[in-house]
Queue: 2 jobs
Job 1
Amino acid sequence: MAEATIPTFMRGKDKIMSLSDAVKTFVKKGTCICPGGFSYTKKPFALAREVIRQDIKDLFVTMNGGASICEFWAAAGLVKLLDTTYIGLEGIQPVAYSVRRSIQDGTIDVEDYSNYGYGLRTVAGRYGWPFSPCMSEFGTSFMDNDTFAKMGLRGKKADGSWIHPSIPPARAAVIEDPFDGWGLRPHAFEGGDGTSNQTNALEKVRESTAYTGKQGVKVILVPPILPEVTIILAQRVGNKGTTRIEGILGPDAEQAISAKYCIAQAEKIVTEEELRAQPYSNTIAMQYVDAIVEVPYGGFPGQVPYYYDYDWDFWRAYTQINRKDKAEVNKYIRDWVMEDEWTFLTTRPGDGYPTITGTKGLQRLFELRADATYGYKPGLARPL
Amino acid sequence: MEQRKRMRARIAEEDFKLSPGIEPRESLETWQKVISAAWDMTIVAVAYNDMRIPLRRVPETLETLEAEISRIGDETTLDVIEEEIKTGIRHFSDILEHSRDSRDRMDRILRATWNRRVQLKS
């Protein structure tokens, strides 16, 4: 691997680290951090818990796809800035309560993008594009709000450097479509366009004078995401960093490649040879991964496809706990993570919330094992 | 330069002529059956290539687990192991059964091919 792709402080060192060392090395106070995974699925919770153990404050969290990790960090009072798309805990709590409460009381300042707009930001980050074009935020209030600009975090300082290296100088930009709406649906095919997506109805867009004061087709340009650290969870990671993700990919590859550093949390570290037997099945090339930590069951209480399902009973209980007094929730989350991950995994699953079987620790974790045929546990009770 | 000359000489006008239609010596149905079987075996071979190394690792990890059984003090841990092994037996038996069945049929097809070759020669 070309040495230029390895951070100077990591040259000659093994990428395989302990959970504690990986977080200590790459995550600092105020770091712009991007958690991978989607919703409850494939979230690197072990790394997230370690951030809480090390009490790393003032985090700038940038993320797509659900707020489960951000919820824990917000509960622990570690988040200062949030750049995101939605902050739900899915069906069980449509708005993650600790995040919501911190935004309402001014502890967290949030910049909001549409899901698609943010997704395109990760694509721009992955490919090194200066921006991605989209139209999904037209007609919404997204374009009227710019929290980071109000906070004076955008643009350059007098010496020409960026005020914040992970915050673009503008939230978005609107331009006239240089192709005059040629690519928009419905297409001008003979007999009409049979595609179901008619959201960008050409005539309406063409008639509008919004945003530029002139009639014509407009396009929104969204900037790439440039996190300092992305944390991801993969089922298998090679000992040099090649990463194989099975099941739903979410934005993991884009976010990992966009970032300055990437920490891969693995269910199992394997030989590179094993993953290179089918190189096209791998998700992230080794040069994008700076640190590897092996934490089996480290995705608990979330789901890792084909390995284990999420702990519905935990989330059901947690969404009652996080509505308690803010200080009480803060204390709960800090007690919950315990002193290290192994102690956590042998103690906390099934602890402090009711389950049908009443099992705890690793017994509870094995109870959540997925059926490899489906990728999840078909018989898992999910009572509301 | 010499090589380019040779290349130019080799690509003569008659090289571009298409072959006349040839009467098929085998039916399309036969070829479709050959291709279908070959593709199915290839799909399995590609998937196997991916699991080749983990599969080789399984006997070793099972051996380690077997040695650990005598040190287990909690019956619920034995429950977990039992459940994992039963699941493993289910999947591996399925793999074994279909592999054995396919392997037996391959032997039979080789014999049938040889028989047919003898018949065609006589």
Note: The mean pLDDT of chain B is 89.
Job 2
Amino acid sequence: MQSLTNRVKPVDRKPMTFLEKIYLWEIAKGMMITIKHFFKRKPTIKYPEQKREFSSVFRGLHILNRDEQGRERCTACGLCAVACPAEAITMEAAERKTGEEHLYREEKYAARYEINMLRCIFCGLCEEACPKDAIYLSQTFTPSNLTRAQFIYKKDDLLIPDPNKDPEQYAKALGDRKRPQ
Amino acid sequence: MSDAFAILDLLHQNFGASTFTQQPTVDDIPTLWLPKEKIISVTTYLKTGIPQPYNLLYDLCGMDERDRAGKEKLPVKDFTVIYHLFSFERNSFIRLKVALEGEYPSTPSITGQFKNANWYEREVYDMFGIKFEGHPHLQRILMPLTWEGHPLRKEHPARATEIGPYRLLNETIDREQNALQFKPEEWGMQRESDDADFMFLNIGPQHPGTHGVLRIVLQLDGEDIVDAVPEIGFHHRGAEKMGERQSWHTYIPYTDRIDYLGGVMNNLAYLLAVEKLAGIVVPDRVKVIRVMLCELFRISSHLVWFGTFAQDVGQLSPVFYMFTDREKVFDIIEAVCGGRMHPNWFRIGGVAQDLPNGWDGLVRDFVQYFPKKIKEYTDMVIRNSLFKGRTKGIGIYTLEEAIEWGVTGPGLRACGYEWDFRKKRPYSGYEMFNFDIPTAQNGDCYDRAVVRVEELWQSLRIVEQCLNNMPEGSYKADHPLTTPPLKKYTMQDIETLITHFLNVSWGPVIPAGEAMSCIEATKGANSYYLVSDGNTSSYRTRIRTPSFPHMQMVPYVSKGYTVADLLSILGSVDFVLADIDR
């Protein structure tokens, strides 16, 4: 066939040699390759004793964030829920009462906040939508569970530990992520 | 591409100017409306009556026009059947539209002109209830035979929750079981010949050789395949219907899952069409980032094909080594995108974030590491004489047959035709890169394999060029429809906060119009044909995937071979069931 441009690259196709036609030799060669791989470094790790590192932008399990004083950042605006392509997020808003200023950063907060991890596709659009930096996807995945109901994560399952009460766990949950401004 | 409209003069001369109504579109594809009585003569003329013919039926789809806003300006009726033809020699598309009136209209079938129209017309019938007169076997193709209604009609519910809970009653079980029973007579097959009883063998839906939920019913004479009927649709999720429900922005994660081995390549095909509609021109940095990620995904997808193909023909170890290397590609992808198989990382007018610090080190390590692995795998698989014995001379098709059946991608190049959309109709800045188009001559399973292995080298070359020449600049276009906009334009004061709320909740409003993208995906030509009526979600999303026509060709190619050869053929075609069924 006539070439349309000079960029064509025909691939090589040699006829089989005599040695190749004796299939037994190929089987021995194949075995050699497999045996060589016995002595190479293992590409697998021994989970769960050993855990792999995730990249800092990895989109895993959701975390509901707090500010430095330990107040919940979420103001229950519902943007994450409408941004969610899989419709996995539901919430109920409540008004902050006097005396609760140390618990909630804004005047309105999420009284109930649920993510159905079986619906979630971990696309990260909720994090992109959040105007308060209140939700982000952390560097770990959702653990397996026995019942469907247990995959519906409540607010308590999602909230990051309080930085004042438990700074160690807080730092761990924050991971490589920069502290929110 | 300047002479794309030259065909109009020829058509006007032959059929009279009054036959056609031209519709302007933003993608520079000549779009003509014509009466349904003329469709056969016009397609015949375009295929055989002109020099440099339109010999590829690229896509055929339907559309429900009844709710479309602003349709008064167009010659539309209730339904439309849309034909996309492509001419290799002219390097141009033409789009023909036939307006149909009535609740369940009918139109002449073009299966006499194009062999691959068969499945496309069945799909349109299945999705819209439009009948094709003269079709050899007009039966549902994606939905179960017992399904009520036609999903892509606007009155059909989009969510399962709108239909009510599903109940499997005893009589339903019998009906469903009966519908799955294969009846050879329906397909014009004999149960016996003069000297033999044929055996009908199910391969799949659960069979490792089918690479997914695919059922192929084989008509066998001893070990030889007399005929085959692929049954698809087990993986059908209604991705096109979801496109009409999701906003332009929140549809991006769904595209990831069409060809799930192609990752961001699906995002790209979709976004090129959206960006054409919106009139967004992306900065060079975005183009190069996108090309780099796409080529990494091409490598990863070809590695999966390579390993599983070797496994199909009996080599069990390579797949493990290749998956290990694929993991190395995924390490880069995870560091850049945050996801692995479903990165959901491209955005309208750009990408989600800038490249992370240290990305170049990761890519450089891979570029240095990978060549010796490709050599090792070539020695292990391609040079292996057992592999050659199983694939050489098996599943041959000629170039003419390939075009007739709508084959694109490596399968077309293995027939000796040097056609690559990245080169011939460059998109997303592919014209800036140096790479070759690998071709082979014989069009058998072995040649398709060799072409793909050579493509690994070429992809690696492109990745290396991206690495060395990554332009500076913004990772998002400076355009009002860029979604989400750059951070500095959002959430500063109440004005920008309102914009942000509207953008996230309703999403961007893409101007009314029609556009089709066309990219060289991992398996062949992938297109999104989007119709916007000026709303926050698309009016019609049509996904043209390469695997669909490739699968349609399998019975034709496998006739006369044995069952063991069929697995070589299936492996060499490299399809993904999610890509076929959408």
Note: The two ends of chain A are 63 Å apart (CA to CA).
